[in-house]
Each structure stands twice: as structure tokens, then as C-alpha cells.
Write a structure and sequence with these properties.
It contains four helices and no strands. With 81 residues, the chain is an all-alpha fold.
Length: 81
């Protein structure tokens, strides 16, 4: 009995997400801008990873620091119940 031929995977390709901060350099990451920072936090209060929000590594690090500073100054909550 011959072995079955290997099948090629035909999955849907995802569109490569672009860093929103690299596209518009005028947009700054600031810990005081809580409305912008909330877009990068889940509904449970966790910081979204790069693969989800599409930021580059440089801006993801800056974003994480800004969110942590806003939490420390009580501008944003650590967790959402």
C-alpha cells in the first residue's frame, strides 16, 4: 500500500500589522495620555503583547513603561474587576 502524498497547507495569511507610532511620528507616547494608553490594555487590565497590537519592539517598550508609570501615579488601574 503506497503512503499518502503530503498535502500542502493552505491557511489564510494574516496581513502584517504596522506600528501605529512608526506610521505617524507626530504621535508621541506619554503616560499622561490615558485614553491612548487604554487602547493597548485588555479589558482585564493586562498590557497587550506586540503580536496582538502590532507595535514594533522599540515602541512596545516605550508603551509598557508609559502604562506602568500611569499605573504608579494612579492614572490607570492595575486590574479591572
Amino acid at each position: 500500500m503506497p503512503a499518502p502524498a503530503p498535502q500542502k497547507k493552505r491557511g489564510m495569511r494574516r496581513k502584517k500589522r504596522v506600528c501605529s507610532f512608526c506610521v505617524s511620528p507626530a504621535e508621541q507616547i506619554n503616560y499622561k495620555d490615558v485614553a491612548k494608553l487604554r487602547r493597548y490594555v485588555s479589558e482585564r487590565g493586562k498590557i497587550l503583547p506586540r503580536r496582538i497590537n502590532g507595535n514594533c519592539a522599540k515602541h512596545q517598550r516605550e508603551l509598557t513603561i508609559a502604562i506602568k508609570r500611569a499605573r504608579h501615579l494612579a492614572l490607570m488601574p492595575y486590574t479591572l474587576d
